[in-house]
Amino acid sequence: MDLTKLTLTDLQHGWTLVDRQPTCLYCGKNWPENTAPATLQAHLAQVHGGAIAALIDLDSRYNTLTAKQRDLLKAFATGIKDRDLAEQTGVTAATIRHQKFTFREKAKQAKLYLATYQAVFAQEDPHERLLDVPQHPRDPDDRWLITEDEAAKTLQRYFDFTHDPVQLKRWPKKQKAVIVVLTRIIAEIPTHQQFTEPQINAYLRPIYFDYTMVRRFLIEYHFLQRTPDGTAYWRTVPNRKD
């Protein structure tokens, strides 16, 4: 699940609707359509330490919080008084208040930047807007410069979307098309989990008859990683420095 495409409300809640089913952002678990929010909150608390903690600790290249900042934000989320937090951390209450001020200033900067970005790129030509490829090699080349328009046409050409999961009709020859195809296929595999080879195959087999080739390409193009002995596979999480 691409968390960067979710709303602020989804990110704050820790779940979103996928085909009308509430779905956890962090493990992909889903529930029936009318599940009470309390059930979702209980899952987040028991499995992920709560929606706030999970969001603060989100393993993403877009999460630039330092370890110290994360600890402070988790403490602030508990409602602890500045004086008590200062005693716990061995600093003055004034220092804690300054940290809060810094966070507020960053939030204001982010709000202004987001408004500016949306205003500038709202009418961006889809023929020129680049596809947001979730994983890429350390040194990407021009094969990875793919516009959303190119990607949409490629997906329609190579996939049959009448099935669930989608089915790949044929394997592309061009490198850019391969990357678009792999980007769509990897979306079928949950993030932040490890899988055995049979489990990975179970995800890929319904998509394309030569699922072993697909698995090999996913590894070659850095969409999947595995242990040297091939006993565990997992989706690549981009480095925050990317």
Automatic annotation (TrEMBL):
GO BP of this protein: regulation of DNA-templated transcription
Superkingdom classification of source: Bacteria
Limits of the DUF2087 domain: 167-235
Keywords from the named record: Transcription, Transcription regulation
Gene Ontology molecular function: DNA binding
Name this protein carries in UniProt: DUF2087 domain-containing protein
Origin species: Levilactobacillus acidifarinae DSM 19394 = JCM 15949
